[in-house]
Amino acid sequence: MNKLSPQLIIAVILITLGAASRLLPHEANFAPIGAIALFGGAMLGWKYALWLPLGAMIISDVFIGFYSGIGFTWAAFLLIAAFGMTLRRAGLGKKVVLGGLASAIIFFIVSNFGVWVSSGMYAQTLAGLVQCYTMALPFFRMTLLSDLFYSGVLFGLQAFAVYAVTKRMRLSSPDLSVR
Length: 179
Hints:
This protein is mainly α and 179 residues long. Helix content is 77%, strand content 0%. Helix 2 runs antiparallel to helix 3, helix 2 packs parallel to helix 4 and helix 2 crosses helix 5. The protein is elongated and about 70 Å long.
């Protein structure tokens, strides 16, 4: 019998939580998908990092519905995962603050570009692009807050788990030092 890897278990749990979070009632743009993508990039192998946000989005979009510009939304989360990979050696604070801020900015830029390109709501001019980003600014606040909050939760839980396991290992190993 094959033993499941911890990375696979974490990935399945996060995909499930990410998909469920989009299906349950929540404040607009306050969802953990950006933080999940960031966490996956920073903490898991690249295959898991890329499949975390895509898995959660595909599953939940089946129920929510597909829309024009969906590829831009999915691409934004892949870029967030890739950015997370650059933070692998960063400290906890940098992963949460810089990562959360960058996640929100990446999502804002890419997803709203997709709205401008594919929705037909804005003129396909520079003025239309500026109008699209301007109209999206109110949504940025919740995206930023959710990415910071959920990044803090995910990276904080991971740091606590490492601390707890390390402490348990120290307590359970015999002290062989001579006093």
